[in-house]
Design brief:
The structure holds two protein chains of two kinds.
Chain A (H helix, E strand, L loop, with lengths): L1 H11 L5 H34 L4 H12 L2 H22 L3 H6 L4 H34 L7 H14 L1 H13 L4 H20 L1 H4 L6 H4 L5 H28 L4
Helix pairs in contact in A: 1-6, 2-3, 2-4, 2-6, 3-6, 4-6, 4-8, 4-9, 6-7, 6-8, 6-12, 7-12, 8-12
Chain B lengths: L1 H10 L5 H26 L5 H34 L3 H5 L6 H33 L8 H4 L1 H9 L1 H13 L4 H11 L2 H4 L13 H6 L8 H31 L4
Helix pairs in contact in B: 1-5, 2-3, 2-5, 3-5, 3-8, 3-9, 8-12
Classes of the chains: A mainly alpha, B mainly alpha.
Chain lengths: 249, 247
C-alpha cells in the first residue's frame, strides 16, 4: 500500500514546482562550481591537488561541499522540498479526502517521507552530476572517480534521513508553509555555529550530519551512518505517533 | 499610499517576519564577538572595531542578508496568496499601484530594520567588550546603508518572484540557489560585477587594502547597476500587477 501511495504522491507532483526546485538548485551549484574552477583551477586548485596528493575530483568535491556550502545548505533544501510536498494537501484541503480512504494514517505519513527522500535524492544526484560535467568541461587530467562520487551521494542521502524525518513532521504539522522553512533556516545557521564552537555537541544535531558527508574517513562515516539512521528512526517514530493522534478537520 | 502602508503594517503585526528580521543579525554579531576573541587570543595586533565588524559581516553578508530578503518578501506576499487574499485586497478602494508599492516599501523597511539591528548590535557588543568610544560610525552605520542600496536588485527580483508565484517554494528555492555561489563570486575581482547577489558583500566589506582606481569605479558602477535593475524589475512587476486578472 505504501508503494501505491508513493506512486500517487509522485503523480500529484508531476506538474508541480518540485521538479523546478530539484533541478534549479543543482543547476545553480553547477554554474557556481564551473565559475570557481574556471577562475581558480589552473592557477591554484590543480597545484593544491598535486601538493596534497589527491585528484582534481577530490578538490572539486571539497569545493562544492565546504566552500560553496552545499553541505550546510542541504538540510535547508530538504525543508523546502518537504514544504512543497505537503503544501498540495493544505492548499486543496485534501486531508479530509485522504483520511476518508481505507488507508492508514501511518502509511500516508511514511509514503510522504519516502517522497521527500526521493526528491532529495534526485537533487543530490543532480548536484554530483553537475560536478561531473564541470570536471569534464574544465578538462581534469585524471579519470572520473566513480567510487568517490557514488559514496558522496550515498553518504549525503544517509545524512539527510534525520532531517527529512524532522521536516516530514513539521510540514505535516504546520499549515503555514513558511514556518517549517524558517525552522529549517534557523536550524541550518544554528547548527553551523554549534559545529564551529562546540563540535562535541554538534554530533547530536541531525542538521550537522550533512557537513560530515564529504569527509569520508572512518569517524565521519560512522557519525553520518549512525546519526542519520538513528535520528531518522527516533524522529519518524515520534512523528508517526503525533500524526496518528492528530485530528485533521 | 500611507493608508495602504498602515494596512500592511497591521497585517504583519502577528507574523514571524519581525522576529526573523531582528534575530538573525544577533547571530552574526555573536559570530563577530567569537571572531574577535579568537584574534585576541592569538596575540596579534588588531583594530578593535574594524575586526568586530569584519567578523560579524562575513557570514551575514554572504548568506544571512540575502536569505533574509528572500524570506521577508516570501512572508509578506504570502499573506495575500493564501485564502485568496489578493481578491479581497483588490476590491478595496485602493489603487493597485499603491498596494504593490506599499508591500515593497514594507519589505524595505523590514530589511532596513534588520540592518539597523545589525549595526546597533555591533556597537552594543563592542562597548560591552571594552571597545573605545571612538566608534567608526562611517563603517558600522555607513557600510550597512551601502549594503541596503546594493541589495536593491535582490529586493526587486525576490519581490517579483514572491508576487508572481503563489507557491512559496519557488522564490525560496530560486533565491537560495542564487545565494549559494556568492562566496565563490566575491573571490573574483573581475566577475563579481555581473552577479548582483554578491553586491551586499562587496558593499559591506571594509576596505582593508587601498583599492585601485578601476576597482573604485567598479564600486560606483555597482550602485548604478543596482538602481537601474531595481527600477526596471519593479517597473515590469508593477505593469504586470496592474494588468493581472486575479480571480
Amino acid at each position: 500500500m505504501i508503494l501505491t501511495l508513493f506512486k500517487t504522491e509522485l503523480i500529484k507532483q508531476k506538474k508541480g514546482f518540485i521538479w523546478l526546485i530539484v533541478t534549479i538548485i543543482p543547476l545553480g551549484t553547477m554554474v557556481a562550481m564551473f565559475l570557481d574552477m574556471y577562475l581558480r583551477y589552473h592557477t591554484y586548485l590543480y597545484g593544491l591537488a598535486q601538493n596534497n596528493k589527491v585528484t582534481s575530483w577530490v578538490i572539486l568535491l571539497k569545493e562544492n561541499h565546504n566552500i560553496l556550502g552545499w553541505g550546510m545548505f542541504l538540510p535547508f533544501f530538504v525543508s523546502i522540498i518537504a514544504t512543497i510536498i505537503y503544501y498540495t494537501e493544505f492548499e486543496n484541503n485534501s486531508w479530509k479526502k485522504h483520511l476518508s480512504l481505507p488507508v492508514s494514517k501511518v502509511e500516508i505519513y511514511i509514503s510522504k517521507f519516502f517522497v521527500i527522500l526521493f526528491f532529495s535524492l534526485i537533487m543530490i544526484i543532480l548536484n554530483s552530476l553537475g560536478l561531473l560535467i564541470v570536471g569534464k568541461i574544465i578538462g581534469f587530467p585524471e579519470a572520473f572517480d566513480y567510487k568517490l562520487y557514488a559514496n558522496y551521494i550515498l553518504f549525503q542521502f544517509i545524512a539527510i534521513l534525520g532531517v527529512s524525518a524532522i521536516h516530514n513532521f513539521l510540514s505535516s504539522y504546520y499549515e503555514s508553509a513558511i514556518t517549517p522553512v524558517i525552522i529549517g533556516f534557523i536550524s541550518m545557521i544554528f547548527s553551523k555555529i554549534v559545529l564551529l564552537a562546540r563540535p562535541g555537541i554538534a554530533k547530536f544535531i541531525p542538521y550537522t550530519y550533512t557537513h560530515y558527508a564529504n569527509n569520508l574517513n572512518g569517524e565521519s562515516k560512522a557519525l553520518v551512518v549512525y546519526g542519520g539512521i538513528i535520528s531518522m528512526a527516533i524522529l519518524l517514530f515520534l512523528g508517526i505517533l503525533s500524526f496518528k493522534k492528530r485530528d485533521i478537520l | 499610499m500611507l493608508k495602504a502602508l498602515k494596512i500592511e503594517l497591521l497585517k504583519i503585526k502577528g507574523s514571524k517576519v519581525l522576529f526573523i528580521a531582528t534575530l538573525f543579525p544577533i547571530f552574526s554579531v555573536l559570530q563577530g564577538v567569537m571572531f574577535l576573541q579568537y584574534v585576541k587570543r592569538s596575540g596579534e595586533s588588531f583594530e578593535f572595531w574594524r575586526m568586530l565588524f569584519s567578523g560579524s559581516t562575513f557570514f551575514y553578508a554572504t548568506l544571512l542578508f540575502p536569505m533574509i530578503i528572500i524570506l521577508v518578501f516570501a512572508i509578506i506576499t504570502r499573506l495575500e496568496h493564501i485564502n485568496n487574499g489578493w481578491n479581497q485586497v483588490l476590491t478595496f478602494p485602493i489603487k493597485r499601484k499603491n498596494v504593490y508599492l506599499s508591500k515593497l516599501l514594507l519589505g524595505c523597511i523590514i530589511i532596513f530594520l534588520n540592518l539597523a539591528v545589525f549595526s546597533i548590535g555591533i556597537i552594543i557588543a563592542g562597548l560591552i567588550l571594552g571597545g573605545d568610544v571612538n566608534i567608526p560610525y562611517n563603517i558600522i552605520l555607513g557600510k550597512p546603508i551601502l549594503a541596503f542600496l546594493s541589495s536593491l536588485p535582490i529586493i526587486s527580483f525576490q519581490f517579483f518572484l514572491s508576487i508572481k508565484f503563489k507557491h512559496i517554494g519557488v522564490p525560496l528555492g530560486i533565491g537560495s540557489a542564487l545565494t549559494l555561489p556568492v562566496i565563490l563570486v566575491i573571490n573574483s575581482t573581475k566577475y563579481w560585477i555581473v552577479y548582483p547577489f554578491a553586491y551586499p558583500m562587496i558593499a559591506i566589506t571594509p576596505n582593508l587594502v587601498t583599492l585601485s582606481e578601476k576597482q573604485i569605479l567598479k564600486h560606483y558602477l555597482m550602485y548604478g547597476i543596482s538602481g537601474l535593475i531595481f527600477i526596471i524589475v519593479i517597473g515590469i512587476g508593477l505593469l504586470k500587477f496592474k494588468n493581472k486578472d486575479i480571480i
